[in-house]
């Protein structure tokens, strides 16, 4: 029997778009809606009426666990928006969304909000396990009959029903290949790893290192700020980087804090240093537009949150099992195409 997921694949759209067309909710381009309906008619798709009946009769609570929305310069507002928008679409089926935010630089905050989330007795959980070691140790507290999925970052081993986000290693490799494109002569490259215990940031760094070292043309050094991602710790680590080697050709920042590096390069008149980072937060976009940042890699955080909630809902109501890993495209953003993307 064909599923909504298969219809979305054939139409090259998101699962949420198919759901909106099937249930006449929200805006969908006329041509896209017509194509989806054509696929539905040709395949004989029928909704799971038992699941629909179930979802209408009982309340479903989906809990979201993620960093504070204003952290990483507002990056986390995007997945929050995606999760809440999915909740609005599913509200007619008695779905409730409850969000729990933690300080990503404070393990005790993560533990406290995790415990509060479990006390709410959710039917399903969507979470960003940024503090990876702590998250890994707490997963065993989740009841065996409560499904959970990860977004933004994954853990090495878990019983999550799905991970939705970038392939972090390949994303790092991409950053490395971009760096080699813009630094074609032998040089010195530094990489900043803002969090030591964030599994997907570590994977990005590993992918970047593999790409850079494979050519044998570049000297590479990795640096981890003492206190994570605040401005002071970034300035300190950047002073150290350039004190150790004043011939840096390229700088890679493996999360949304790239603008701190851009601030420093601009202040010290080091704008010839090539700079690559992540995420379309406003400060990054400003520096991308004026040429201080050369490339940003985007991971569609709003879509991660939106699709994640729909995956959980289908699992809870019909037992539909999705792919264990759903990778977001590796979007390369430059000053020439940034205006075609939404950002916080």
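Sequence proposed for the structure above (344 residues):
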């Amino acid at each position: 029997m064909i599923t909504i997921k298969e219809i979305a694949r054939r139409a090259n759209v998101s699962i949420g778009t198919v759901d909106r067309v099937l249930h006449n909710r929200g805006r969908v381009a006329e041509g896209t809606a017509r194509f989806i309906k054509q696929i539905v008619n040709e395949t004989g798709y029928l909704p799971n009426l038992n699941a629909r009946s179930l979802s209408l009769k009982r309340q479903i609570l989906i809990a979201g666990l993620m960093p504070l929305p204003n952290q990483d310069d507002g990056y986390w507002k995007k997945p929050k928006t995606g999760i809440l928008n999915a909740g609005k679409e599913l509200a007619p089926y008695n779905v409730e969304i409850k969000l729990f935010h933690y300080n990503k630089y404070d393990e005790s905050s993560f533990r406290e909000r995790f415990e509060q989330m479990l006390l709410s007795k959710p039917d399903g959980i969507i979470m960003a396990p940024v503090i990876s070691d702590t998250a890994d140790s707490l997963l065993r507290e989740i009841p065996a009959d409560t499904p959970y999925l990860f977004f933004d970052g994954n853990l090495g081993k878990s019983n999550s029903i799905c991970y939705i986000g970038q392939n972090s290693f390949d994303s790092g490799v991409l950053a490395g290949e971009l760096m080699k494109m813009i630094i074609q002569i032998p040089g010195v490259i530094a990489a900043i790893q803002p969090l030591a215990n964030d599994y997907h940031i570590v994977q990005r760094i590993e992918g970047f290192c593999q790409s850079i070292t494979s050519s044998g043309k570049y000297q590479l050094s990795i640096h981890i700020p003492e206190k994570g991602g605040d401005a002071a710790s970034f300035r300190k680590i950047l002073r150290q980087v350039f004190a150790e080697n004043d011939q840096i050709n390229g700088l890679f920042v493996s999360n949304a804090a790239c603008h701190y590096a851009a601030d420093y390069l601009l202040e010290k008149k080091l704008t010839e240093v090539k700079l690559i980072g992540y995420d379309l937060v406003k400060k990054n976009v400003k520096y991308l537009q004026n040429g201080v940042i050369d490339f940003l890699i985007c991971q569609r955080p709003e879509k991660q949150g939106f699709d994640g909630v729909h995956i959980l809902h289908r699992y809870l109501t019909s037992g539909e099992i999705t792919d264990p890993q759903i990778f977001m495209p590796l979007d390369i953003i430059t000053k020439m195409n940034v205006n075609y993307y939404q950002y916080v």
